[in-house]
Amino acid sequence: GERVGVLALQGDVREHVSTLEGLGADVVRVRRPEELATVEGLVIPGGESSVIDKLSRIFGVRDPIRAAIADGMPVLGTCAGLIMLADTITDAITGQQTFGGLDVVVRRNAFGRQVESFEASLAVPALGEPPVRATFIRGPVVETVGSDATALATLDDGRVVAVEQGNLIGISFHPEISGETRFHRRFLDRVAARRTATLTAAS
Ligand code: GLN
């Protein structure tokens, strides 16, 4: 299987590890540059983006992740992970930075507080049928989709909650806690496709 990482600084790491392992991937918990260097793709979990940001700098993995994104490594970010992939946050706390890569503007905590968490049945044309059962937990919303990014899903009120750009996928909700595996599958397919392209280029 594909050898992929889950960024394991903070957040719901375990749920992503088990979803990926269920799909046959070989999963590494990534905290340090040495671990990042061994993987072909990375999942950034939900959690608290300002904490993930701070810890990524403390562990020295921020710049290597930015370099890997620039190099085309596939990355799937959910919730706080989407925030980490956004080029711009509207309401960053002081000093908060992102890895960037997605040409989007994201608003944090766009759906209110933890108690206002909700589930929605969400049509995601790129994934086909059935609709996704999406769990929102203090998730962000994509306020602006830049010209380099594409919306993958919108709520009934028109708010964008999933985007894609090249090998990057960012979603506002948590597929890993509702048994939804198609986003992870899409991510692993990107990893496999990039491996094939690399091997072809080398031969
Ligand atoms: N509100 C969190 C943040 O700003 C994201 C919540 C989540 O990942 N479930 O990072």
UniProtKB/TrEMBL annotation:
**Which residues does the Swiss-Prot or TrEMBL record annotate as the active site?**
79, 174, 176
Q: Which positions in this protein are listed as binding L-glutamine?
A: 47-49, 108, 137-138
Q: In which pathway does it act?
A: Cofactor biosynthesis; pyridoxal 5'-phosphate biosynthesis
User: Pfam families annotated for this entry?
Assistant: SNO
Q: Which UniProt keywords apply?
A: Glutamine amidotransferase, Hydrolase, Lyase, Pyridoxal phosphate
The chemistry this enzyme catalyses reads: L-glutamine + H2O = L-glutamate + NH4(+); aldehydo-D-ribose 5-phosphate + D-glyceraldehyde 3-phosphate + L-glutamine = pyridoxal 5'-phosphate + L-glutamate + phosphate + 3 H2O + H(+)
Presence of the UniProt keyword Lyase in the record:
yes
Q: InterPro entries annotated for this entry? A: Class_I_gatase-like (IPR029062), PdxT/SNO (IPR002161), PdxT/SNO_CS (IPR021196)
Q: Does the keyword Phosphoprotein apply?
A: no
State which Enzyme Commission number(s) the record gives. Answer: 4.3.3.6, 3.5.1.2
Cite the record's note on assembly: In the presence of PdxS, forms a dodecamer of heterodimers. Only shows activity in the heterodimer.
Q: Which HAMAP family match?
A: PdxT
What is this protein's function per UniProt? Catalyzes the hydrolysis of glutamine to glutamate and ammonia as part of the biosynthesis of pyridoxal 5'-phosphate. The resulting ammonia molecule is channeled to the active site of PdxS.
Protein name, per record? Pyridoxal 5'-phosphate synthase subunit PdxT
> What is the scientific name of the source organism?
Microbacterium bandirmense
